[in-house]
Amino acid sequence: MKLPWILRRVLGIKTMTNVLTGQKAPLFSLRDANGQAFSLKDALQKGPVVAAFFKISCPVCQFTFPFLQRLFKTYGGKNAAFWGISQDDARDTKEFCAEYGVTFPALLDEEGYPVSNQYGLTNVPTFFLIDTDGSVKVSCVGFGKPEIEQIASELASRQGRPAAAVFLPDEVVPDHKPG
What we know:
Blueprint: H1 5-11, E1 29-32, E2 37-39, H2 40-44, E3 49-54, H3 59-75, E4 81-86, H4 90-99, E5 106-108, H5 114-118, E6 126-130, E7 136-141, E8 143-144, H6 145-158, E9 176-177
Parallel strand pairs: 3-4, 4-5
Antiparallel strand pairs: 1-2, 1-5, 3-6, 6-7, 8-9
C-alpha cells in the first residue's frame, strides 16, 4: 500500500515525490505567465511531456534548466512538449526564463501549489518524462545527469534517431546535485 505523502514525511520516509518511475502521472491544467492554458491530458495526445518543477531562487534549478533547454532545442516541438512549472509569480518566472535562456513554456503553479502538492514534491527541481499513456518514464529530484541523458535517449528513440550529447566534452558536470 502506498502511504500518503504527508504520512511518509511525518514517518521520515524520503521519496520526495508521490510520482515515481512506472506510475501514472496526475493530470493537471495550468496557465503560463501570459495566461495561455496548458493541459497535460491534451499534450500527451501529441507526444511525451517533460515537466520540470522549479523555484527561481533555487540554485540547483538555475543549474539544471540550461540543460533542459538543450534537450528542448534538440527534441522539443511537435514530437515532445517541455514545460517548466514555476512556484513563483509570472513576472519573476519570465525573468528566470530570460536569465537562464529557457524558451519552452513556463507554467505557473497556483497559490498553495496544488500541482506540486498533487505530485507530493518536497524539493525542486523535480522533473519527469511522462509518456503518452500517462506513465512516468523518468523521475528525478534535484539535478541528475543520468536522468537527463535517459530523457535524451528515450526521446531520440521515439524520434528514430541516435541520442545527441547533452553535455559538452569540456564541461565538468556532476552526476547529481540535491534539490
